[in-house]
Specification:
This protein is of the alpha+beta class. It is 41% helix and 24% strand. The model has no long low-confidence stretch (mean pLDDT 96). It binds adenosine-5'-diphosphate and magnesium ion (MG).
Length: 387
């Protein structure tokens, strides 16, 4: 993980003092449940052993200073103002601070924060939620605010939705908040119920980061979000009393899909059947049948690619190669899509040399290699120290 020492050292270099608190939070993979969260369906994720770690001190002056080894130093006097351009990275901790004020934090003075990370940014592994959760744990501790993990997850999502301006669901923040070593996190996004269940120690997650990103990724995510709600509107116009795609079962969908416009029908079909797949994965895992979930992971990818159209050629290729590899249970794109990474859930016989062969096949086709990250399922956001 991005170590406590490196965050402390970044803090000391920038602020010539020792931090009051240190907190860390993991990135995550979406195991299955693609774009189900904001449609009020279920989703299953896992926290990975890649973290954002922050060191923070409260200060008497009403000033907010932000240091990161990868982004520019920023100082602001008004914490309610959204930053732009190369300073925009501070909107994550700043948005969290504002969300915590709404939950009872008494603003008094300011803070300075230093950020270290080994979660690749923009790869679909949710460095943004990890930054939010680590900041939230640190700010809450420094300002003596007590929150449950559920409240932390909700406050951080609010920061990303309302302050940063990304309409993400609760998956990223929920998994970063509730992750546990060796356990998958299941989220019922309608009731906001978070639960964990064991996967079995023989399995780990392999991530192949393509570094490809569609230039319009933000607006494409927003378009898909909009199309899902258009599907609900069109289904209501066709006589179904529903508020979210999670209210629609496959039989209802099949009976009404001819009333939907073509693209909207494809997006709805993806989400409605993806919810079924998440429920099937749940049942299989409850019976300890990890080996059986693979087909559902591959089917999820196929549906993303063909129906939700949020895959790219590079991810389709990775998934097809991974399918032929020994001890790969399942593979799919992970996260919002339109670039980013593919993940594989694999047993112990899938080794680094197989992963390398996937990367070389990819190089043969696309000319460059994806980064390989072998991740173990890890603990969620937590305070590491406080003075
Ligand atoms: P993802 O969450 O998939 O990694 P996002 O675009 O949602 O991608 O979030 C990435 C953003 O998070 C970066 O553009 C940056 O603003 C912020 N971020 C990620 N890592 C760091 C870091 N080490 N220091 C400061 N900001 C970071
Ligand atoms: Mg993000």
């Amino acid at each position: 993980m991005a170590s406590s020492e490196s965050a402390v050292s970044c803090f000391e270099t920038n602020f010539q003092s020792s931090p009051q608190v240190v907190a860390t939070a993991p990135g995550r993979v979406e195991v299955i449940g693609n774009h189900t969260d904001y449609n009020q369906g279920p989703v299953i994720g896992a926290a990975i052993d890649r973290n954002v770690t922050v060191a923070l001190s409260r200060i008497a002056d009403t000033v907010f200073r932000f240091a990161s080894s990868e982004y520019p130093f920023v100082e602001v006097n008004d914490s309610s103002l959204k930053q732009s351009g190369e300073n925009a990275w501070v909107n994550y901790p700043l948005g969290v601070y504002n969300a915590l004020i709404r939950r009872g934090l008494k603003p008094s003075g300011g803070f300075q924060i230093a950020v270290e990370s080994n979660v690749p940014s923009g790869a679909g592994l949710s460095s943004s939620a990890a930054l939010e959760l680590a900041s939230a744990k640190a700010i809450a501790s420094a300002f003596d605010l007590e929150l449950s993990d559920k409240e932390f997850a909700i406050a951080c999502r609010e920061a990303e939705n309302d302050f940063v301006g990304v309409p993400c669901g609760i998956l990223d923040q929920g998994v970063s908040a509730f992750g546990q070593a060796g356990q998958l996190v299941h989220i019922d996004c309608r009731e906001l119920v978070f639960s964990t269940f064991p996967l079995g120690s023989a399995y780990s997650i392999w991530i192949f980061n393509t570094h490809k990103k569609h230039s319009l990724v933000e607006s494409m995510y927003a378009t898909r979000h909009k199309e899902c709600f258009e599907a609900v509107d069109q289904l209501r116009a066709a006589g179904l009393e529903v508020s979210y795609l999670a209210d629609v079962n496959p039989d209802q969908f099949e009976a009404h899909k001819s009333r939907l416009s073509e693209d909207v029908a494809k997006r709805a079909e993806h989400v409605i059947y993806e919810i079924e797949r998440v429920n099937q994965v749940d049942s299989l895992l409850a019976e300890g049948q990890v080996g059986q979930v693979g087909e559902l992971l591959f089917a999820s990818h196929e549906s993303s690619s063909k129906l939700f159209e949020n895959s790219i050629e590079e991810l389709d290729y990775l998934v097809s190669i991974l399918k032929s590899m020994p001890d790969v249970v399942g593979a799919r794109l992970t996260g919002g899509g339109f670039g980013g990474a593919a993940m594989a859930l694999a047993g112990e016989a899938f080794t680094d040399s197989y992963a390398q062969s996937v990367a070389s096949a990819y190089r043969g086709r696309f000319g460059d290699e994806p980064d390989i990250l072998h991740c173990h399922i890890s603990d969620g956001a937590r305070l590491l120290s406080s003075n």
